[in-house]
Specification:
The complex is a heterodimer. Chain A is mainly alpha-helical. Helix content of chain A is about 80%, strand content about 0%. A two-stranded antiparallel ribbon of chain A has the order 1-2. Classes of the chains: A mainly alpha, B mainly alpha.
Chain lengths: ~300, ~290
């Protein structure tokens, strides 16, 4: 069932890319970015059960780090990677300080990170351009060539994120994180180094969004704090994972596709109320489908057997 | 000498900040729900005051209880119909739910009131008084006095009324309270409604100090976070301590580094408090 869904999505994407022109390329790039963010959030939020709202901080940090590195002469791809490493280092340091918090307290602390980093970027306007934003070097090539190039970069990143997520899920780290999610005290009693594993999960949930931020910045050529530190960038991945199914491997990818489809439809038809429609979607999701779409997929074969 | 003035500014803001945060703290403490709607509730209260003054000429100090009652009704129905259904769900669910509800409410306000910043301009203005070398703007002093009065009213309500005792009982032990005959679902709705009342009334008061727009609801939500965490969650005393602390932090950072540092420093302090002293300055669980 899952493989069918994935294959259908992949086939549809390929067909759209071949026939759909620049609009389809743009949508596909956003899809790859959303999938990267959702897969990353799932490691800390889904597997470990820590409700992180810090994704926007990592993403924004990645955009600004790579933009500043590029303006000081670093080649683009290296700047992206270094942006991811900077976001990961930030997450590792902060994680050690706030990962002992539980529930609401952790959520609030991670939310506050976004505000702090955004305001710091706003204030240091000599380095970051402040509220004026930053322009990035123009890349060469035709519009379509560029679109294909950035889609390739973002899709590669999404694939690497998916493979990393799979490795985490199957490996010792995923097992430890699931133990922590179910009962952290018991896990610690049994010798799980919760501190280390949580920090590792938080760091992993930062590195890919950081790189995605770098690619995004080069792709759109212009960044400003209110855009790349938008709190919606923290909430959307979480909603995608809820749509797809918490803690599952492919759930975030499916969720990203469903969310993007809805978002595009809503943007097109209800421009002035798109936030309200997104809000209504979230409310309906929490009330009626708290275990995500994948839970329906899992229920189906059982109904068939009975 | 400048420090006396800065101190006065901080304390004068502090009372209002306490009223902003106390309802948020009550909902968080009793229901274990972080109400991301709180900022929009405050702004909606401020709009009630704005329209009451500009259309009907009703002074914001008089429209504050009306704004509170309107928000009370909204809060009661929201908790009763939607939030009560997921109140036992994990943090992620309740937090995301109130985020979604806030998107709805905030978008509705944007459509109804537009994004323009507006402010109640009192005619005639209240002016200022001089106490020795310190200047005190009278509107701020009056707002803070009323806000503190309101906060004290909430404290007495929780302390002395049957309703208040029932809410505290739920805070201490939901199951035991139900066994003692407390109608838990109804009382949860009342708690959320009281939190919304405080937000609406505080919003009404602050409309004569701050320019308001649906866009800056997040500012007030952020302040409520900082106040609750720094003062200590879930008590009226904590909200007052946290409110005055935030007032002082904002005045002092403005003096030392410039006003643009007020937000990052107060949020950095929030993270530091969470990391080092999550019980806040007062350091005890309260309302009992």
């Amino acid at each position: 069932m899952r493989m069918v869904v994935i294959l259908v999505i992949l086939a549809a994407c390929l067909a759209a890319l071949v026939f759909g022109g620049n609009y389809a390329l743009r949508l596909a790039t956003i899809f790859a970015m959303y999938a990267t963010l959702a897969l990353s959030w799932n490691i800390i939020g889904g597997l470990a059960g820590y409700p992180s709202f810090a994704t926007a901080a990592f993403f924004g940090l990645g955009t600004y780090a790579s933009a500043i590195l590029q303006s000081s002469g670093m080649p683009m791809v290296f700047a992206w990677l270094l942006g991811g490493i900077i976001a990961a280092g930030f997450a590792a340091l902060i994680g050690l300080a706030i990962l002992h918090l539980k529930g609401h307290y952790f959520a609030i602390a991670s939310l506050a990170l976004v505000e702090v980093v955004r305001e710091l970027v706003n204030i240091n306007d000599r380095l970051t351009g402040g509220g004026m934003g930053l322009n990035l070097p123009i890349t060469h090539g035709s519009v379509t060539q560029q679109a294909v190039y950035f889609l390739g970069a973002m899709a590669t990143l999404a694939l690497i994120t998916l493979l990393s997520a799979a490795a985490v899920q199957r490996g010792k780290l995923g097992f430890a994180l699931r133990c922590i999610q179910q009962n952290e005290d018991a896990a610690v009693m049994l010798g799980v180094n919760a501190r280390l594993y949580k920090a590792a999960a938080f760091t992993l949930s930062a590195v890919f969004p950081g790189i995605a931020g770098g690619i995004y910045a080069s792709w759109v050529h212009y960044i400003d704090p209110s855009d790349v530190f938008d709190i919606l960038l923290s909430v959307k991945p979480l909603v995608m994972v809820l749509v797809g199914g918490l803690g599952t491997l492919f759930g975030p990818v499916v969720g990203a596709a469903v969310f993007l489809g809805l978002e595009e439809a809503v943007w097109r038809s209800f421009l002035t109320v798109h936030a309200a429609v997104l809000g209504a979607l979230i409310v309906a999701l929490i009330l009626f489908l708290p275990n995500g779409l994948m839970s329906i997929a899992r229920r189906l074969p059982k109904a068939g057997q009975a | 000498m400048i420090y006396l003035q800065v101190l006065a500014n901080g304390v004068v803001l502090g009372g209002l900040y306490a009223a902003i945060a106390v309802g948020f703290s009550l909902v968080w403490g009793v229901l274990n729900v972080i109400n991301l709607l709180h900022g929009s509730f405050i702004i909606l209260g401020a709009y009630v005051a704005f329209f009451a003054y500009s259309l009907l000429g009703v002074h914001p100090f008089l429209s504050a209880p009306i704004a509170g009652l309107i928000l009370f009704a909204i809060g009661y129905s929201l908790q009763g119909t939607v939030i009560n259904r997921v109140i036992h769900a994990p943090v992620l669910m309740t937090l995301t739910l109130t985020f979604g509800l806030d998107l709805l409410l905030n978008n509705a306000m944007l459509l109804a009131f537009k994004a323009d910043y507006r402010k109640v301009v009192l005619d005639p203005p209240l002016g200022s008084i001089f106490v020795g070398p310190i200047v005190l703007p009278l509107d701020r002093v009056a707002v803070t006095a009323l806000a503190l009065l309101m906060t004290y009213g909430l404290y007495r309500l929780l302390r002395d009324s049957k309703l208040g005792r029932a809410i505290i009982a739920i805070r201490m032990d939901r199951e035991a309270a139900a066994l003692m005959g407390v109608n838990v679902l109804r009382m949860q709705a009342m708690t959320f409604a009281i939190g919304a009342f405080m937000a609406g009334a505080a919003g009404s008061l602050l409309s004569i100090i701050y320019p308001i727009s649906p866009l800056n609801s997040i500012t007030f939500l952020g302040k409520a976070f900082v106040i609750c965490v720094i003062g200590g969650l879930g008590s009226v005393g904590g909200a007052i301590v946290g409110g005055v602390a935030l007032g002082l932090i904002e005045s002092l950072t403005a003096l030392w580094f410039g006003p643009e540092y007020a937000v990052p420093i107060s949020f950095a302090l929030l993270v530091a408090f969470l990391a080092i002293r999550p019980t806040g300055l007062l350091g005890r669980r309260g309302y009992e």
